[in-house]
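It would be a great kindness if you could assist me with a short task in structural biology. The full record is reproduced below for your convenience:
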Amino acid sequence: MPEPKHSGLHTKHINESADVVMYWWDRAAEILAAKGTSLRRFGLVTTKSITQEYCRRVVAKRMDSKHPISLLMAIPNHPWTKATPDAAQVRIAMTVASSGAHEGVLNEVVHEAALDTDEPKIEFASRVGKINSDLTIGVDVTKTKRLLANEGICHDGVKLHGRGFIVTPAEAKHLGLGKRPKLEKYIK
């Protein structure tokens, strides 16, 4: 099957704050979801910011579309290996996507060592399930909405704001600390 025709870089639907690599992720997802495509899956190495809001929206749009795609494998935060000690601490993400609704394997780095060698040691914890657009498994907290029933009736609760509740030793003495029994339970 021929590839769908595209003229130039179509980025109108991608937020300007998203990484440029998300254009390529979206482009691969577009081809994957196209009618009659021969593409069965794609995989990309991106920056780890794929999990942040503006990049995540690109992934979510493709996962929630009329012809959805799923993540078959994801590593949200992997070190860039063979880095020298004076190099930037670069972190990447890796994703593999397929058309349709599927569960995937989420690999999370739990230990890393010897990253500046030819034989880095990276250990993963793997979980199987539906991988969300923020590269997590479980409840998709990116889809939470405000509970309108609590509008205007909710409060932060009692907590200190600023230094207004802090008293000096002189003020504490004036309030009776040391003179009134058991007051030390309330004034510290």
Q: What stands out?
A: The radius of gyration is 26 Å.
